[in-house]
Design goal:
The protein contains nine helices and two strands; from the N terminus they run E-E-H-H-H-H-H-H-H-H-H. It has about 240 residues and is mostly helical. Strands 1-2 form a two-stranded antiparallel sheet. The two termini are about 45 Å apart.
Amino acid sequence: MSFPIPWSGGGQTAAPASTPMPMPTAAQTQTATAFRWRPLPCGVATSAAYIALYGLSNQLTSLRTDVGAGVFAWERAIPFVGWTVVPYLSICVFFALSFFIDADAGRLRRHVQRLLIVLVVSVLCYAAFPLRFTFERPPTEGLIGLMFEVLGHCDMPYNRAPSLHIGVLVLLWARFAPVLRGAWAVGLHAWFALIGVSVLTTYQHHVLDVPAGAALGVAAIVLTAGSRGPAIGAMSRARPQSR
């Protein structure tokens, strides 16, 4: 509705005053952020991204003719240890649990960011510097053989440096270590160290890939260390200024 302006000479009317939109409170912003960063949807979306991008990268590299090796001669001395496929594959379990181990939305957001940074940078490196594993894996039987068969259907001898397995392991270490104490923490460190060794003893990676993956994982942590979610930022802005 408009109203005549009494002191104007004609029939001019005043435009209705617009009602300002209320600014969300810090509590509302925090609630909205927490709703967006739920463990289950984050886990599903991140897992889907890993399956899609990693698989696509493997397929594209398999079609290339300029794939290198990047292996040292002394690596022939590294033994193949079949049972280490168990800790190698167990990283999938820790990957899934990592979205539920800590309910804090801000830390979950950083964890997802780090996982995606490691994934995207790794895939770009695979495209720029394609490498393949060159050793022939000895035959295996029984349950261990079945596990290697499953691994073979999910993976190919490409996508080497940086090792995505090691990069993700670093992020999982940073995710799980702060919430475990005592014997659980000791067991975690021992098992994660075994996972790190297993990338070599299962003949999935050459030595060059391991430090490259570890460096990428650490870099992702450093890049996101000071990252704060919208809720935290809104709360900071809502604090009264000290005089």
